[in-house]
Amino acid sequence: MIRTRLKGMGVALITPFKEDGSVDYDALLRLVDYQVQNGTDFLCVLGTTAETPTLSKEEKDKIKRLVIERVNGRIPILLGVGSNSTQAVIDTLKNDDMTGVDALLVVVPYYNKPSQEGIYQHYKAVAESTSLPIVLYNVPGRTGVNMTAETTLRLARDFKNIVAIKEASGNITQMDDIIRNKPADFDVISGDDGITFPLITLGAVGVISVIGNAFPREFSRMTRLALQGDYNNALTIHHKFTELFSLLFVDGNPAGVKAMLNMMGMIENKLRLPLVPTRITTYEKMRSVLDSLNIKC
Fold first, then answer.
1. Domains of the chain
2. CB within 10 Å: which end of the chain, N or C, has fewer?
3. Residue 61: what pLDDT?
4. What whole-number distance in Å separates Cα of residue 163 and Cα of residue 216?
5. pLDDT in tens, 187-210
6. Over the chain, what is the mean pLDDT?
7. What does DSSP assign to residue 277?
8. Cα 22 from chain centroid (whole Å)
């Protein structure tokens, strides 16, 4: 069952670009291999971290196809299909080839700020248009509207194929409310690296991680230890990364993690406008933290 497989550390895969701005498909495949070989439990493809708003339909289709082929069923694929148009999501699900996709990540509609009832009706329409499992995605810092615990729980109870939520509201009280009152077969997944450890202690089942792009072995180990109840060792790893968590997002996502991957020699430090690379000062701070971590990448 997909419910039991979307646990642990999932990685929100970046999209590497060449210096000329085109997608670096070779680097993408190397990143996929790096993830699979270093303990990543599942891949989130074409989420926000992939700079999806700047990708063409052709690029998105090719990325999806190449990643699915490369993974070859070894770990689950969670595909981002969100939009602020309900019909656009339904059309994607109806017309695109979903072979090899294990579950769908559907963000709360952004920019047009629907009411809680509007959010509910959006997910209802999407859930009724597919048999694939759906992971809700609440990230009010990007969408402009928070999906309340009440709406999340209503959706979790009403639709069998709504199986989890990626919670990135930053509101621990709200997340705890969902965890306490959810159906037994509905999962809460952290959408924020920095609070993954405390959220797992409350009952979350894992994370969809940004930092995991660069450090899959270490961060998946932290997640696994926390899920096993080995909080002391998990906390040690969590604290190792504390400074990086803040540096990662100070100039926006995925600028931070792309800078890290660039330091590690895995990609060009290239983003698509309107996103730009981290400032030199942030880059140098990251480099000194990486040197002090002495993690074998």
1. 2-228 (3.20.20.70)
2. N
3. 98
4. 24
5. 999 999 999 999 999 999 999 999
6. 96
7. P
8. 23
What's phi and psi for 245, nearest 5 deg?
A: -55, -45
Selecting among 34, 120, 123, 137, the annotated active-site residue is 137
pLDDT band at 297 (very low <50, low <70, confident <90, very high): very low
- What's the CA gap between 29 and 218, in Å, rounded? 21
pLDDT > 50? residue 94: yes
Question: Is the peptide bond between 254 and the residue preceding it cis, with omega within 30 degrees of 0?
Answer: yes
Q: Which of 72, 138, 73 is nearest to 105 (CA)?
A: 138
Our measurement of the distance from residue 211's CA atom to the centroid of its chain's CA atoms, rounded to an integer in Å, reads 10
User: What is the DSSP-derived secondary structure letter of residue 192?
Assistant: -
Please count the helices (runs of H) and the strands (runs of E) in the chain.
14, 8
- Is 111 catalytic? The answer is no
CA–CA distances in Å: residue 88 to residues 106, 252, 290: 12, 27, 41
Q: How many CA atoms lie within 13 A of 24 on its CB side?
A: 20
The token duo for 56 is: 């063409």
Cα end-to-end distance, the chain, whole Å: 32
How much is the pTM? 0.97
Return the ∠ at Cα 91 (arms to 88 and 96), rounded to 5°.
120
Alpha-carbon torsion 139, 113, 134, 180, what sign? positive
The phi and psi torsions of 5 (rounded to 5 degrees) equal -95, -20
Give me the phi and psi of 102, to 5 degrees please: -90, -30
Catalytic residue among 60, 166, 182, 258: 166
Q: Which residue has the tokens 């926390």?
A: 226
Q: Which two tokens stand for residue 119?
A: 């959010």
CB atoms within 10 A of CB 85: 11
What's the CA angle centered on 48, arms 46 and 52, to 5 degrees? 55
Both tokens of residue 62? Answer: 């090719």
